[in-house]
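How a chain folds remains the central question behind the approach discussed here. In the encoding step, the backbone of a single protein was reduced to a row of integers, each denoting a local shape. We regard such an encoding as a compact summary of how the chain folds. The sequence in question and its structure tokens are set out directly beneath this paragraph:

___
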Amino acid sequence: MDRLTEMEAFAMVVDQGGFTDAAKKMGISKSAVSKHVSSLEARLGARLLNRTTRRVSPTEIGLAYYDRARRVLNDAGEADALVTSMQSAPSGLLRISVATDFGVNHLSPMLGEFLADFPDITVNMVLNNRYVELISEGFDMALRIGELEDSTLRARKLTETTKRMIASPSYFQKYGRPMRIDDLNEHKLLHYSNQSSGNVWKVTAPSGEKRQVRTAGWLSVNDGQSLLNACIAGLGIAYLPSYLYSEAMRDGLVVDAIPDLPVETQGIYAVYPPGRFTQPKVRAFIDFLAHAFADKGPTNW
């Protein structure tokens, strides 16, 4: 006989306190339940139940076996439910963490199309400029830009963005233009205060050498759009991703600070909790973003 069926029959007898109620619960005959339990006892070579005319109770060995059997049955039930959910239409609340600038400028405009495609999903998008703990803070996923920290989270690269040092033409008219990386020490730098590296810019020299620019700067802001606004106003040089500065550069409001420097590339990733299976609502949103970003191309971020 099937081991799980034997186990289920035994556990149900213990739960219901007898064969008659167990049979009703399982939707089979009392004799079938008795056969399953007898087969289980014969296979194990142990008596699992004390049977009297008035009641049925587990033996000491039976009680120990029941605890393990119930765990196995619960796991099997969860596995079945998981497969069912994986095949069902994505639904439920999807809670997302994303950096404020990227969320406002790029993610928000996409949500209408996504919600139209998946009407059974509701989205709670939380905009912040800090590193959130997905599991402990109750997020289903997050979008992160740049080098990922070591963690147990799963990640999928969606696209890339570029990063440049930029300033307004008016700034260069007033303070001159840096010709090389070392010249930045003499300039007014604008820093993004939430960056994990602090007031340190990691840049690549024309030779390919990796350099670090360390300076306190004279303005630090925890919001990228505010930093861009300060840059446009001529307050200094900022080091920003293209999804922030692209329109301003196209309009001539900002220009490259040191045009000969190689353009830095950063990945844009979807990160989500570990596990062999991904929730349908999470998988649906990640696939949607991957296609949306691919349609625009990496140069537009």
Notes: The longest strand covers residues 154-167.
